[in-house]
Amino acid sequence: MVNLELGTVDNGKSMSEILKDALEAKGYSQRSFAKKLGYTPQNFSQRLKKNSFTAEEWRNMAYELGYEVKLVEMESGIEFESRRKGHGRRVRQVINGVLYDTYKADMLCGDFFKDGASEYTDGMAFELYVDYFGRFFVARYTDWENGSDSITTIGKEAAGKLYKKYGDGTLKDSIFI
Hints:
Layout: H1 15-26, H2 30-37, H3 41-50, H4 55-64, E1 92-95, E2 98-101, E3 105-110, E4 124-131, E5 136-142, E6 150-153, H5 156-166
Antiparallel strand pairs: 1-2, 3-4, 4-5, 5-6
């Protein structure tokens, strides 16, 4: 992905103007880009003039041009990162007075579809999570009658080992130190 700041709210550019700048920077004509996306050139031009594309359409156009759309907090300049959602259903459990909630934490890895075909292995699956406070926990899921899902806390070192075995390798080791 190319990272090029094309405009911000305070420079007064509309999304259409930003897209035109991006097309020029990538060497596309509006006509050829419209055809690439499956629009008629006339429809694309009209929508560009009216600035009437949806947010999802803008995001997809940026992606087609090799850009990614990011949310950056204006005051601090910190990039917003959305939560990494898990595959399993929501599990909430209080352990030693602390509420652990899979919907309010980032899923780091798990073993759903471990064999490439079956969602559960022997009727069970797990996901490793980290919450906003840096606490690691494992959500265990069951797929049998009267089975119950649960959460178990896990230390950083053990979480790191679990991630090395089941993770995708995109996280830095320092998260587990």
